[in-house]
Amino acid sequence: MNRLVFEGRRGYEAMTARRRQHSAEFKAKVALESIRGERTINELATEYGVHPVQITQWKKVLLEEVSTLFSSRRGAKSRKRTR
Known about the structure:
- Helix content is 54%, strand content 8%.
- It has one domain (21-82).
- The model has no long low-confidence stretch (mean pLDDT 82).
- It has a two-stranded antiparallel sheet with strand order 1-2.
- By secondary structure, it is mainly alpha-helical.
């Protein structure tokens, strides 16, 4: 239940809305769709019900961290096998 109590013109006294928590799978799915570029960030935000800035942040994290997929221990083990 979203309930806002106003305190004059200054703003809100209390807000009982909860923050949503998205799974890693959901974030990855949305970020990958934004990288594909088939739809705009705003279209994705409307479809998935998240703010466009949030999608941009998830996309940035994905692009920054994708290189770690190929530089993990797994890569070191496969190099040892080929020697």
